[in-house]
Write a structure and sequence with these properties.
This protein has 373 residues and is mainly alpha-helical. The protein is built from 17 helices and five strands. The longest helix has 25 residues. It binds ligand DLZ.
């Protein structure tokens, strides 16, 4: 007789997850499932799927070695129903057991799916301190945030890492990451629909690899395609900045980030994209839009040196498009931002430019935008 089924999801691969605390090895069965539904709700990068499936398989082996009974649905099993709810129902029938325990999923979509299953699904608490940005391993549960913070602290105490690095690292994990996680659950399932700036441009094809001629964008996209990874500046100041300046639909750029990055799970990706990067939530996450001209990209990278566009030029065909786009963005959104004290300096700079130059800037940006899609 099986008493209950314990579902472990692909981003819950931690032995001290709350659902396992309730487990009775003699009576309960752990279920895990590789399903098309989860592998295809966005076009995940293949590396992300490989990471999750191989980590799930290793974790199931580990649980078995600890003496637990695990029923694992492989992706190519003909009996696999290819959805989490389908697998719950199938396993419930197989074991004649309608009691399911699962630690609350990290995504509204999955929470909703599971609560619609005609079984008794109990959702247990999530851990208090959640995963961090720095690694996909943290985001699927293979590393624990408190452990890595303690290791970093120890490295400082042993004299192996400087205080400023360790402080930044720990703040990233227990500060920013927890804040982002709180935003996701506080804002609710419709957060990704926000569009404060009314941006509706379809995602330009350069995001899927069509060459744009802008060296920073082309290199960031190529690296993303090759490795499913990009660092903070590449995500925020190159691809995110460009989407915001050119008025790309926040939902479309959100789906892109969610699919291409190996560490992207909606709880962490959506507040970073919709809020931090695209200001689509109107300032819930960020206090000002994260926009910059070419100068900042030049300061933070070496992309501009070998770009065919000239970062020092402001207008015209050879000028770095980020320059005119930056002022175009500020000018077209003036009503929404001019009262923001963090933006006042920018508007004063714009207002001091002579009319001819301003007209040329807007014309340059308009020409670029018209040729974009
Ligand atoms: C992202 C992902 C993928 C690609 N595949 C699976 C899967 O086959 N089985 C599974 O249990 N979870 C998978 N995940 C993670 C889920 O989509 C989802 O992000 C989390 O379960 C939400 O907490």
């Amino acid at each position: 007789m099986v008493e209950k089924l314990i579902l472990i999801l692909g981003d819950q691969l931690t032995e001290d997850i709350s659902s396992l605390r309730e487990l009775d090895p003699g009576k309960d069965v752990i279920i895990m499932a590789e399903v098309l539904g989860e592998a295809s709700y966005v076009a995940h990068h293949p590396k992300k799927i490989i990471l999750i499936f191989s980590a799930m398989r290793s974790f199931s082996d580990k649980l078995r070695s600890l003496g637990y009974r695990v029923e694992y649905s492989f992706f190519d099993d003909p009996q696999n129903t290819q959805s989490l709810s389908g697998e719950l129902i199938r396993r419930a029938e197989q074991f004649k057991c309608s009691k399911i325990t699962v630690t609350q999923p990290n995504e509204w979509r999955v929470i909703e799916d599971l609560s619609n299953v005609p079984l008794t699904v109990e959702l247990m608490d999530q851990p208090f301190l959640f995963h961090a940005i720095i690694s996909p391993y943290l985001n699927i549960g293979l590393l624990k945030p408190l452990d890595v913070c303690k290791k970093a602290e120890k490295a400082f105490l042993d004299g192996r890492a400087p205080l400023n690095s360790v402080e930044g690292f720990i703040r990233q994990i227990i500060g920013w990451r927890e804040y982002i996680r709180g935003i996701y659950f506080l804002q609710g399932p419709n957060y990704t629909q926000n569009n404060y700036l009314d941006h509706n441009r379809p995602l330009p094809s350069l995001y899927w690899g069509k060459e744009s001629g802008l060296n920073c964008l082309d290199q960031c996209v190529k690296q993303t395609e090759d490795f499913s990874y990009a660092h903070h500046i590449q995500r925020l100041m190159v691809t995110g900045n460009f989407a915001l300046l050119t008025g790309v639909s926040p939902y479309e750029i959100h789906e892109w980030y969610l699919s291409v990055y190996i560490d992207a799970f909606e709880w962490v990706e959506a507040p970073n994209t919709i809020g931090m990067s695209q200001f689509a939530d109107g300032g819930v996450v960020a206090s000002k839009p994260y926009v910059s001209s070419g100068a900042y990209i030049n300061k933070m990278s070496n992309y501009c040196k070998s770009c065919k566009f000239k970062v020092a030029e402001k207008v015209g065909k050879d000028a770095c498009p980020f320059n005119a786009l930056y002022w175009h963005f500020l000018s077209r959104n003036r009503a929404k931002f001019q009262g923001n004290p963090r933006m006042a300096q920018m508007y004063r700079t714009w207002d001091r430019m002579n009319e001819d130059h301003k007209n040329n800037v807007i014309k340059s940006a308009d020409e670029f935008l018209n040729g974009l899609n």
